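Ligand-bound model needed. protoporphyrin IX containing FE.
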Amino acid sequence: MLPVYDPFSPEVMADPLPFYRHLREHDPICYLPEYDMFALARFDDVLEMLSVTDGTFVPTDGTLPDPGVLRKHNNGVVHYPTTGEPIPPYSTFGPPVHELLRQAHVGPLRAGAVKRLADFIREQANERLDLLLPRGRFDLTQHYAGIVAGAVQCHLFRLPLSEAKYVLDTVNAGSLTDADPQAPRTINRYRPIAELIEGIVRTRRKEGADGGFPLVDGLLNLELDGRRLNDTEIAQTLSVVMIGGSETVPKVVAHGLWELAKRPEQLAAVRADLPANAPVAFREMVRLCGPAQWFARTVQRDTTIGGRPMAVGQRVIFLIPSAARDEREYGPDAEEFRWNREIKRWVNFAWGNQFCTGYHLALLEGAILVEEFLRRVPEFEVQADEAVRLPSYFQWGWNELPVTVPVER
Ligand code: HEM
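Prediction:
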C-alpha cells in the first residue's frame, strides 16, 4: 500500500512514479487538506486548467511555494500582487501585468532569433567534446550539456563565456532542496543569479537602452503603471530566463541519452539519420525525462476543473510527469521510451499564460546536444551505479550522469 501522496514527502521525492500511476487511476484530482490544494494527475485535467487564460488560475502564492506557505491557507482571500516598487517575481502576476513583463524581454527567445543560435550552440557542443572525449570519462549532465547550456545563457546575457560554469553551478546550488525538505525555499536562493544580472542591467542603463540588447532593453524601457522598473526588479524578472535556461536541458539530454543507451535498436535507428532524428528523439526525451515535477496556481475565482469545484484561495498543482505518462493521451505504452513517438499535444512546457518562453531554445539546444554527442561518440556506457539524483521536491532529475567512452590512442 502506498502512503498518501504528498509532494514534500521523502517517499515521493525518492520515486514519484508509483504515486502518479495510483493518482491517475484512482484519484486524478487529489485533494491535499494540509495545503488546501488539489493535485492534477491526468493530462486532460492539466490541459483544461492551463487553457484557462482569463486570470482564474494565477500563481499568487508562487509557482513553487514551499510547504510553509501552503500550510497557511488563504481561507477565501487571495493576495494579488501590486505593481508598486518593488514588484514581486513576475510569475506571481496574472494577465495583463505578467504578459507585459513577458513581452518586454521575450524577443531573443522567439523562434527566428533562436534559429540564429544554432551554429553557436553546435560550436560550443564540439568544443566541450574536444575537451571531454580524450578523458574517457565525464559527467554528461554537468560537464557536457550543462556547460553548453550555461554558455548559451552567457551569450544571451552578453557575459564572457568563461562564466558558463559559474552560471551553471550557481543555478544548481539555488535549486537544491535542503537536507530538510520542509525548510523554506524561496527565490532568494537564486540571489547570486539576480545579482549577476543586476550588474548587466546597471551597465546597460548607463550605456542607453537603444533596443540593441532586447533581452534587457525592453524591460528598461517598459512603463508599468506610469513608472520605470528599477535594476533589481529587472534582474529578478530576467533571472527566471537564466535559471530555466540552465537547469532543465542538461538533465533531459543526459537522461535521454541514457534511455537510448538502454535500447540499442532505438539508438541505432536514431543514428541512421542524426540531423533528422535527433530533434524527434529529443521531444520524447522531454516528455519522459523532464525533471520538473509540478508547478502551482492559486484559484482567483470559484471555478471547476474536471467537474470538481475549486474555491477562491485554494491551490492547484499540475503534475507534469504524470500527465506526460497518461495512457489516455499517449496510449498503453505511455510509460515507455519510444524515440519516434508522435507527440500531438504535451504539457511538458506548460500551456497558456505561463507557457515556457524557452521552448524554441530548449528544443534546438537539446537536439544539437544529442546530435553532436552521438555523431562524435560511436560507443558510450553510462555508469549507472554512480549516477546522482539529489532530493528535491520539485525536480526529479539526474544531477550527475557519468559516462565512459573509448579513448583513441
Ligand atoms: C526541456 C527544457 C525545458 C522544459 C521542460 C521547460 C519547462 C517549463 C515549464 C513547464 C514552465 C512553466 C512553469 C509554470 O507553468 O509555472 C516553464 C516556464 C519558463 N521557462 Fe522553461 N523549460 C525548459 C527550458 C527552458 C529554457 C531553455 C529557458 C530559457 C531560455 C526557459 C525559460 C523559462 C521561463 C523564463 C519560464 C517562465 C515563463 C513565464 O512565466 O512567462 N525554459 N518552463
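The pocket of protoporphyrin IX containing FE is lined by residues 63, 91, 102, 109, 240-241, 244-245, 248-249, 252, 286, 290, 292, 295, 348-350, 354, 356-358, 361-362 (CB under 6 Å).
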